[in-house]
Amino acid sequence: MTTDHGGSAVSDARTPAQIEADIVRRRDQLAETLDEIGVRVHPKTIVGDAKAKVAETVDRTAGRAYVVVHRTLSDVRAGFVSDDGAPRLERVVPVALVVVSVVGLLALSTRKRRV
């Protein structure tokens, strides 16, 4: 007894019908394999896979950015609001004065340009 290339045991005395059946089976396996390869290398499949990878990367990056922004905003909020939720006026008032001053300077510089 010997083994064929597929690893199955074969008797030395096979009939022509057995040989033909084996050839048909291998041809079907080869056709299936070629079909799978054709699907994998088809441009639409390659583009679809690339799009999926890009979408996954964007989602992951956006998720990380969201976490960073949320953490930063929470830290800033904690600096301007006490634990009981009341604003910390010693920090809010100076920042508000700076913002109003900058907006006022921008308004004045814009008005001077128009005149």
Structure described in brief:
This protein is mostly helical and 115 residues long. Helices cover 78% and strands 3% of the residues. It has 3 helices and 2 strands, in the order E-E-H-H-H.
Report on this model:
The chain has helices at residues 16-41, 43-80, 89-114, and strands at 2-3, 9-10. The chain has 115 residues and is mainly α. It has a two-stranded antiparallel ribbon. The longest helix is centred in the middle third of the chain and has 38 residues, at 43-80. The mean pLDDT is 88.
* Cα distance spanning the termini: 105 Å
**Beta strand %:** under 5%
| Global geometry | elongated
Order of helices and strands: EEHHH
Uncertain spans, ≥5 residues at pLDDT below 50?
none
Structural Rg? 36 Å
- Please report the number of helical segments: 3
Described by strand count, sense and barrel closure, the largest sheet is: 2 strands, antiparallel
Q: How many strand units?
A: 2
- Which class of secondary structure composition applies to the elements? mainly alpha
Q: State the strand order across the main sheet.
A: 1-2
Query: Which whole number gives the mean pLDDT?
Result: 88
- Could you state the oligomeric state of the chains shown? single chain
Helix content: over 70%
